[in-house]
Each structure stands twice: as C-alpha cells, then as structure tokens.
Amino acid sequence: MAPPGSVLADNLYSTLYLFKQHFHNGTPTIANMLLNLHQGDADVNKPLKVNGEFQIVNIDYSAGLYEGSKFVELLLLFPDSN
Question: For the segment 19-35, what is each residue's pLDDT rounded down to a tens digit?
C-alpha cells in the first residue's frame, strides 16, 4: 500500500483517475500486469519469471520524461468502452 501523500500514492491516484474518466460508468476488463519500466533494451533487466496470471508490459522511458515533468508518456490503447 502506498503511504498517503507519497509520490507513489499521487501517481496511482492520477492513473486511476484517468481510467475513471475514460470508462465513465462502464466497467473495464481487469487484467493482472507487471509493468517493466526500462531505458532502451527491455531484455536487460526483464523479469525472468512471472505468475501465469500476469502479463508483462514493457515501458521504455529512454526518450525522457513527458514535457519536463516526472511522468513517462504512455500511449493508452483501450478498447472502446461504449
């Protein structure tokens, strides 16, 4: 659990808020994911083993942070929730 007021808590809040805005009152498909944040080569520090219920999602942040912020720019690919 992220401590209240921590950067992790703020980031989780921001991410969950984006999901809420995107899906409105609909229910998204839930999936277990392990986010593998890396710079460049995803295979260098890639987890060697994950539970079969989890999908590894590689996020390359070698291009830098989004507009000088502390955020990594992501392309969100959600199926149409309508």
Answer: 888 888 777 777 888 88
